[in-house]
Amino acid sequence: MSFRKDFLWGGATAANQCEGGYTEGGRGLANVDLAPVGPDRFSVITGKKKMVDFDSQHFYPAQNAIDMYHHYKADIALFAEMGFKTYRLSIAWTRIFPLGDETEPNEAGLAFYEDLFKECRKYNIEPLVTITHFDCPMHLVEKYGAWRSRKMVGFYENLCHAIFNRYKGLVKYWLTFNEINMILHAPFMGAGLYFEDGENQEQVKYQAAHHELVASAIATKIAHEVDPENQVGCMLAAGTNYAYTCKPEDVLAARKADRDNFFFIDVQSRGEYPAYALKELKRQGIELPIEDGDLALLKAHTVDFISFSYYASRVQSTDPKINEKTAGNLFASVKNPYLAASEWGWQIDPLGLRITMNDLYDRYQKPLFIVENGLGAVDVPDEAGYVSDDYRIDYLAAHIQAMKDAVELDGVDLLGYTTWGCIDLVSAGTGEMKKRYGFIYVDRDNEGNGTLKRSKKKSFDWYKKVIASNGEDLTN
């Protein structure tokens, strides 16, 4: 067997992409609710277009998403039928603290997730919970400027106290921030950041990043104090950067691009700011808002494991003539001529997953957990709602084989694997429903039309077989 006996097979979702029920149970308004589908989405999630409430000119898919708020029991039963050992999900901050700065949590929100976790436990499914999957209460955005404010650390700490104590014994695995490096690429979606005219955007982003890193260390501290059994991980959007040629300048450009992403995990895993980052921040005139005790806190409370998403590798070139970029991804890079691409232009590179795993494990020497990987595609169901998604099976089989090679041949310590969007949900990047990842088809379109009926795709039974064989049988 390549994988450990207790390997955590499963799937992953995010509250804002699947729950819906945006006004139910006392839930408040969050930044992720305000990202519309359509041409304005990119400017909203990157903080260029300010949107503080819904308007009649846009459709906001997160409002109802796939309505898992009302379907979670049936959905979890389907996950159990596939044999899931774990289910990665996120908590909507505004269900627990609707405004974000209250002193007492919202009982209805706490009870909702307690019921959901108990439903998982009923099927022996281990919840893997992301505390913040891009969520930021809009009240905190408007009143405090979101994560640019140090006050956010205290509000996040209150959230952690509430959930760690309430869910003690129900949840063991936690992630502090989803794709923490997304703050550099989509700052409003990633951290609730808008920018004012003339504001030093890089200063604001790294200022906010420091506050998130301090908050992550505090979360790790609280989690271990509340329950020594708790395991806390960080999470980055990963994908190794290749040099376009063996020209030394290209190699250096690729190394620098990797470091831009490693920066956050270096702090969370090693407990200190790396020298290269401090030098670069100084060159840019960026000052980190480090307060007394911050550095000691970061050093004392590092994460237990490294989790990451992997969809594609990336390429860097210093030749201005080599400028054709990949499409459809917030982490756009130079196109790799040796790779095929998905319908959204994401380049498909299973071997890149093995390379990325080795890069991370060699660097940090901590267990890894792949918490997002999958193929976004247009699925065309038959009249019964069945989708013959052999293309998805082929994609996942190739990536799982690369994952096996990293474990078996390279000695990487891997805790588990959760495919992204195990049930169809709203795309974070585009807001579309037609960009589907799931083993379970959901009848809903980009405009919110449809019955929300769930139906199994061909990949459903394939993944069930993969899990039952602990990854040994990948045949279609």
What does this protein look like?
This protein is 38% helix and 13% strand. By secondary structure, it is of the alpha/beta class. The protein has a single domain, classed as Glycosidases (TIM Barrel), CATH 3.20.20.80. The longest helix is centred in the middle third of the chain and has 26 residues, at 201-226. Keywords: Glycosidase, Hydrolase.
What's a concise summary of this model?
With 476 residues, the chain is of the alpha/beta class. Helix content is 38%, strand content 13%.
Could you list the spans in which at least 5 consecutive residues all have pLDDT below 50?
none
**Count of discrete alpha- or pi-helical segments spanning 4 or more residues:** 15
Ends distance = 20 Å
Q: Output the structural class.
A: alpha/beta
Task: Tell me the CATH topology.
Answer: TIM Barrel
What does the largest sheet look like? 8 strands, parallel, barrel
The ordered string of helix (H) and strand (E) elements is EHHHEHHEHHEHHEEHHHEEHEHEEEH
Tell me, rounded to a whole number, the average pLDDT: 96
* CATH homologous group name: Glycosidases
The appropriate CATH architecture is: Alpha-Beta Barrel
CA gyration radius, whole angstroms? 21 Å
- Please indicate the count of domains: 1
Q: Report the portion of residues in β strands.
A: 5-15%
Pfam families: Glyco_hydro_1
Family: Belongs to the glycosyl hydrolase 1 family.
EC number: 3.2.1.86
Organism: Pseudolactococcus carnosus
